[in-house]
Amino acid sequence: MNNPEETYVCPMHPEIVSDTPGKCSICGMRLVKKDEVVTTEDVGLGEITLKSYLPLVIIALLILVSSLVAALGTGDFLVNTLLYFMTGFFLVFAGFKLLDLKGFAEGYSTYDLLAQRWYGYGYVYPFIELSFGLVMLAGFHDAWLLYSEAALMLFSGLGVSLKIYRGEKFQCACLGTFLKVPLTYVTLVEDFGMVAIALILIGLL
């Protein structure tokens, strides 16, 4: 029998509470014990404001500034800035996902087209991003690699587009489960922006 004092909640929608294990009625994620959930001040998604995107904006700006500084004095400032930015993006975003791989996989399965059909893809995806970052860090910038990165981000963006088109409110799993970011047009800019950078680099290299 279940302990009557145990409460189960959805990691993405904390307002969904149950006395027994099960799945979230909103997103379909597995309910977990309340004491296993990383607590925050937010309850659900709440009202989406500029503050909702602050974690994503700060991290993106840090990667951008670091890329600009690293590219100073190099032979091709624009190309190197874009290469450093892509490298930093994949490494940093993969790192956040790996902090709670199980939580990321559950969140990703709520909107990614492949993860919805193959749950294990949520466990594989962060390592794909990590591999891309490490390969670029090692100095490999071949066209096949950039095309692969563009395809990955384009496919990821398609799942986000469908959720937004349907008007469904979900949290983006791009920064794992520790930092909550609404799944909105900003996420599309992130995904399709990386596609654009990859294609620009293919044309420049």
Question: Can you offer a commentary on this structure?
Answer:
- With 205 residues, the chain is mainly alpha-helical.
- It has 2 domains: 1-44; 50-204.
- Helices cover 53% and strands 5% of the residues.
- The chain contains 6 helices and 5 strands, in the order E-E-E-H-H-H-H-H-E-E-H.
- The chain has helices at 54-71, 77-99, 101-108, 121-137, 143-165, 185-204; strands at 8-9, 17-18, 32-33, 171-172, 181-182.
- A 3-stranded antiparallel β-sheet has the order 2-1-3, with no helix packed on it.
- Strand 1 and strand 2 (17-18) form a beta hairpin.
- The radius of gyration is 18 Å and the shape is elongated.
- 31% of the residues are buried.
- Mean pLDDT is 80; it is low at 37-47.
